[in-house]
């Protein structure tokens, strides 16, 4: 979501004749930080980034926007950090209008009137080969630990299919080969405008051009049969999904307010892999949720083994302001959370390596995104990173997987088959 909205701001700024430079450059006149607030750690990194920029660039203007600014805060906090201008999620959509301002402009309940139908990125600047398309905002789920729905809003806002098609066509014309469809709660796309994600994907896949479609994070309960079937049957849609399960324990999931069980997750993955045994699933898992026992944590470890994830993002529970989980008893001690997350990371790496070994000898399609020291780098349809021996940056290449590395796989360009006919 933030990557897309950063692209949107970049286009607005460049259309207004500002020059946007790589973030690694120094001595910019203005620094814009598009922030996240999903965890306490994310907020800490925001503050750390601001302090670093202010120290290195004392005379530059610092603008802070994004979800961090949607949490009510004292103006003195921003002053102490050295921020000159604070913009909310609504105001950043008019970034050019505010550039010469100072102070705090952040409408907390902007989402009640928010409209995303006009948001359109014509050319993704940060990524040549991959482009993001935001199609939905807002979340009406009731997860007890999450603060984001109070920052982005509980009203579902969907972009009309015809607008998504126009945006996708423009990006494909600009040689973007992979379109990543994203939203705050992607599976709820269309609930407000009488359609759904399956219908959107079907229409996007009909666009002429050599490209593929990938979905960003989608909740398990939103993967109904109609959506699963179009993912499995449409050749333009990658056989990879990021499904944030959050826990492998049904009792923990209930306390989290997640609307599924461990058995449901097993059945869901079984459906996906019945069509493609190598179907790739990545996930997010939280450890140390209030009351999480050793047995419940072990249930998560066991489910990771059964579901054979290709990658797990493991992180520790952190209390977020105003959430029900922050008020729950039986807090898990910090040292226990630390030990559990380390154990989960180690275990999930072993599981991911076992999954990748199943790919050895298989031919997959890699989208080449860069080259370093003669090694071509990119991701295949399963979202597995490749180090391969050839290709053209920004284009697809068929490769045969040779071996597994800690980060991904090593492959070689497949030989073209010559017909005798």
From TrEMBL:
Q: What class of enzyme is it?
A: oxidoreductase
**Has the keyword DNA repair been applied to this entry?**
no
Q: Which domain of life is it from?
A: Bacteria
GO terms (molecular function) for this protein are: 2-alkenal reductase [NAD(P)H] activity; 4 iron, 4 sulfur cluster binding; metal ion binding; tRNA (N(6)-L-threonylcarbamoyladenosine(37)-C(2))-methylthiotransferase activity
Pfam families per record: Radical_SAM (PF04055), UPF0004 (PF00919)
Q: What PROSITE patterns does UniProt report for this protein, alphabetically?
A: MTTASE_N (PS51449), MTTASE_RADICAL (PS01278), RADICAL_SAM (PS51918)
Name used for this protein in its record: MiaB-like tRNA modifying enzyme
Species this chain originates from: Fervidobacterium nodosum (strain ATCC 35602 / DSM 5306 / Rt17-B1)
List the top taxonomic levels of the source.
Bacteria, Thermotogati, Thermotogota, Thermotogae, Thermotogales
């Amino acid at each position: 979501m933030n990557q897309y909205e950063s692209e949107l701001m970049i286009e607005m700024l460049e259309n207004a004749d500002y020059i946007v430079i790589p973030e690694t450059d120094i001595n910019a006149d203005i620094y814009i930080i598009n922030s996240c607030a999903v965890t306490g750690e994310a907020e800490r990194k925001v503050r750390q980034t601001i302090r670093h920029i202010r120290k290195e660039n004392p005379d530059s203007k610092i603008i802070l926007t994004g979800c961090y600014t949607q949490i009510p805060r004292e103006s003195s906090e921003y002053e102490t950090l050295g921020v000159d201008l604070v913009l909310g999620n609504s105001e950043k959509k008019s970034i050019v209008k505010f550039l010469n301002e100072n102070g705090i402009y952040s409408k907390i309940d902007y989402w009640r009137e928010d409209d995303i139908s006009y948001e359109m990125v014509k050319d993704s600047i940060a990524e040549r080969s991959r482009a993001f398309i935001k199609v939905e905002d807002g979340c009406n789920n009731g997860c007890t630990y999450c603060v984001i729905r109070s920052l982005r809003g509980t009203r579902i806002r969907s972009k009309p299919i015809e607008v998504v098609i126009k945006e996708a066509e423009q990006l494909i014309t600009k040689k973007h080969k992979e379109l990543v469809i994203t939203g705050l709660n992607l599976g709820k796309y269309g609930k407000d405008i009488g359609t759904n994600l399956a219908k959107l994907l079907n229409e996007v896949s009909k666009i002429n051009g050599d490209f593929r479609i990938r979905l960003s994070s989608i909740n398990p309960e939103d993967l109904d049969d109609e959506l699963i079937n179009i993912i499995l049957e449409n050749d333009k849609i990658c056989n990879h999904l990021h499904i944030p399960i959050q826990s492998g324990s049904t009792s923990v999931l209930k306390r989290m307010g997640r609307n599924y069980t461990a058995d449901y997750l097993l059945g869901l993955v079984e459906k996906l892999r019945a069509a493609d045994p190598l179907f790739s699933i990545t996930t997010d898992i939280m450890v140390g949720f209030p009351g999480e026992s050793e047995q419940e944590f072990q249930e998560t470890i066991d489910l990771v083994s059964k579901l054979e994830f290709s990658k797990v993002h493991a992180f520790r529970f952190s209390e977020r302001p105003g959430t029900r989980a922050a008020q729950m008893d039986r807090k898990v001690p910090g040292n226990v959370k630390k030990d559990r997350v380390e154990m989960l990371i180690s275990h999930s790496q072993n599981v991911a390596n076992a999954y990748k070994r199943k790919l050895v000898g298989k031919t997959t399609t890699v989208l080449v995104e860069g080259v370093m020291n003669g090694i071509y780098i990119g991701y295949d349809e399963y979202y597995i990173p490749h180090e391969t021996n050839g290709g053209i940056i920004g284009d697809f290449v068929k490769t045969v997987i040779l071996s597994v590395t800690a980060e991904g796989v090593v492959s070689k360009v497949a030989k073209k088959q010559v017909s005798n006919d």
